[in-house]
Design brief:
By secondary structure, the chain is α/β, with parallel strands linked by helices. It folds into two domains: 240 residues, Up-down Bundle (ABC transporter transmembrane region fold), CATH 1.20.1560.10; 242 residues, 3-Layer(aba) Sandwich (Rossmann fold), CATH 3.40.50. The protein contains 19 helices and 13 strands. The strands form three sheets. Strands 9-10-11-6-12-13 form a six-stranded mixed β-sheet, with helices on both faces. It has a four-stranded antiparallel β-sheet with strand order 5-4-7-8, with helices on one face. Strands 1-2-3 form a three-stranded antiparallel β-sheet. Helix 2 packs antiparallel against helix 3 and helix 2 runs antiparallel to helix 9. The radius of gyration is 36 Å and the shape is elongated. The structure holds adenosine-5'-diphosphate and magnesium ion.
Length: 600
């Protein structure tokens, strides 16, 4: 329990650090809140004199003067109320802006291994529900908590200043009210937490349904999905109903108790007056009972906003923990820079000392596993030099994609070395290493932008002619020219308005737009028909000249003319050689090749 509050306090401090630069405004907000509360309390207190010296004594001059002063105090109170709420709203949105900006930067700088272990929905929650609860608290709750505290202290002080005996009676009933509020708020919190949990389950459910909508329909799973959803939706309904039932209990209970308190204090006060025991008489009793009427309100307000703040802190704590996840660049000890000057790639040795890059890749006894428990690649060694085309073949799950993802340092290897032009890739700055290669990954991804910009993505300054040329090489120009808007066709939802094959052709064009010395193709033509593939292969040959090419192909016919073919099985290279050599060997490659030939 203690630890929980310690954590909450630490989170609070971190949250307030996002107000950096606005400290003075925060102090002003604090002062305005105290003043607003003071104006209310003091205004009521002044009634005592207004009634005694003005109304009872019939001194109309006094009455007019004090009424004007009272009016001014109330007016300034209302103005400062408006001022601090407005300032807080402005400040809160700035803090939220900063929190979100930092979240976005964080997401983009995390290593791929993070995304292997966390779901998209989990990360989305930081941006949605966690930020939302923080917005609620920042907009109102922090200010309201301070306001309620000032009001509670001021009201009690006002009552005790007027008459301590009456105040003691009033305090007794206030304490009962506060105990009720405290007990009820525990219930409220319980159900609000359930509401949050059920809501995130519902969101997860919707996300899952939407992602798998095609499979869902294909297997006629709609009824089953509906039933699962119905149950979760009912859980949410029950939790939310209970949460609101308990919140709504507060007001009638508090109002009834304060009426009771009001009645008791009024009766006792009149008895006091009748017996000459209340010095100010009716002039003192009037502000007193006014205090009593509103006395429970600050406590109620306090619990409501306290709960909102606890909610916010839970969200903020998750956000701050996420901020602390290790970034990719933290592990980047690379100091060697690979640079691109006029579309030619160099290794930078000194300010005016550049060596042309060749794109040489050497794997030397590389061992790798995505996690400690399971080794995926075992003792992988190979080389590929400029102008050579190296092909990887093997069954699904053999480790082909894993091998090539290590070259761009998507993951760090367990042991062995990988070199790019003789430089250990660990010594090369990550972003310059990635710039020095062109890669078509197994999963294509297209951005919600025009076809033109999607192709230009790695080299935004490309001219239209260059984009056309890249599309020609990739065999994509044919289908683009058939589209109504051609290169300006807007893609949405990862290119959902294109076929799988067309999306792959665009990825190929994207790879052909820049000319780094290393080209990596991972099943880049798996969804393209054999006829188009043959055409693409021919045009790609020009692109591959003078480059190191690593290619993974699921149709073995496409790797035939490679310099060398590596056959992988269970993360090991089991055969290597040229197409003819491997066929003569009559091993795994032979089996794969013949198998596929028989099938087609
Ligand atoms: N991100 C990942 N996290 C954990 N294991 C993975 C990940 N990606 C792939 N694997 C595992 O690594 C093995 C090799 O996968 P992969 O290199 O994608 O195979 P291939 O490309 O040859 O089909 C598979 O057993 C797969 O389950
Ligand atoms: Mg693969």
């Amino acid at each position: 329990m203690e630890k929980k509050y310690k954590n909450a306090f630490a989170t609070l401090l971190k949250l307030f650090s996002f107000f950096k630069g606005y400290e003075l405004l925060l102090v002003i907000v604090g002062i305005l809140i105290v003043y607003t509360s003071f104006a209310n309390i003091f205004g009521t207190y002044m009634l005592k004199d207004v009634i005694a010296n003005g109304i009872t004594a019939g001194n109309y001059n006094y009455l007019l003067r004090s009424a004007s002063i009272l009016g001014l105090i109330y007016f300034l109170g209302a103005t400062s109320d408006l001022a601090y709420t407005q300032i807080m709203i402005k400040l809160s949105q700035r803090v939220i802006y900063r929190l979100r900006e930092k979240l976005n930067k964080k997401v983009l700088s995390l290593p791929l291994s993070y995304f292997d272990q966390h779901q998209v929905g989990e990360i989305m929650n930081f941006f949605t529900s966690d930020i939302d609860s923080t917005i609620n608290a920042l907009n109102q709750s922090f200010a309201n908590i301070l306001f309620s505290c000032c009001n509670a202290v001021g009201t009690m002080l006002g009552m005790y200043l007027i008459d301590w005996r009456l105040a003691l009676i009033a305090t007794f009933i206030i304490i009962i009210t506060v105990i009720f509020i405290a007990i009820n708020s525990v219930e409220c919190r319980k159900y609000f937490r359930r509401q949050q949990e059920t809501l995130s389950i519902i969101n997860g459910c919707v996300e899952e349904d939407l992602r798998g909508i095609k499979v869902n329909k294909a297997f006629e799973h709609e009824d089953q999905s509906y039933k699962v959803f119905e149950k979760k939706n009912a859980d949410w309904r029950d939790a939310t109903t209970k949460a609101f039932f308990h919140t709504q209990l507060n007001t009638p209970f508090i109002v009834s108790l304060s009426y009771l308190n009001f009645a008791i204090c009024a009766i006792v006060g009149i008895i006091f007056i009748a017996n000459g025991m209340l010095p100010g008489g009716i002039a003192a009793l009037t502000p007193f009972v006014m205090y009593v009427r509103t006395s429970a309100q600050p406590f109620n307000f306090f619990t409501i906003h306290f709960n909102t703040i606890l909610n916010c802190l839970a969200g903020a704590e998750r956000i701050f923990a996420f901020y602390e996840t290790e970034e990719e660049n933290v592990n980047d000890k690379g100091h060697v820079k690979l640079v691109k000057i006029n579309d030619t790639y160099y290794r930078e040795k000194g300010p005016n000392d550049h060596i042309l890059l060749e794109g040489d890749i050497i794997f030397d006894h590389v061992v790798f596993g995505y996690n400690k428990e399971k080794i995926i690649l075992n003792d992988i060694s190979f080389y590929a030099h400029k102008g050579q085309k190296l092909a990887f073949v093997g069954s699904t799950g053999a480790g082909k994609t894993t091998i090539i993802s290590l070259i761009s340092r998507f993951y760090e290897i367990n042991s062995g070395t990988i070199t790019y032009d003789g430089i250990n890739i660990q010594d090369i700055k990550i972003e310059s290493l990635r710039r020095a290669m062109s890669m078509v990954t197994q999963e294509t991804h297209l951005f919600s932008d025009s076809i033109l910009n999607n192709i230009k993505y790695p080299r935004m300054h490309s001219t239209f002619e260059e984009v056309q040329k890249a599309s020609d090489i990739a065999g994509a120009s044919h289908f683009i020219s058939k589209l109504k808007d051609g290169y300006n066709t807007l893609l949405y939802d990862d290119g959902a308005n294109l076929s799988e094959g067309e999306r792959q052709l665009l990825s190929l064009a994207r790879a052909a737009i820049s000319h780094p010395p290393l080209l990596i193709l991972d099943e880049a033509t798996s969804n393209i028909d054999t006829r188009t593939e043959k055409i693409v292969e021919k045009t790609m040959d020009t692109l591959m000249q003078n480059k190191t090419v690593l290619v993974i192909a699921h149709r073995l016919s496409t790797v035939r003319n490679s310099t060398a073919i590596l056959v992988l099985e269970h993360g090991k290279i089991i055969e290597r050689g040229s197409h003819d050599e491997l066929l003569a060997l009559k091993g795994k490659y032979y089996a794969l090749y013949k198998g596929i030939e028989e099938l087609s």
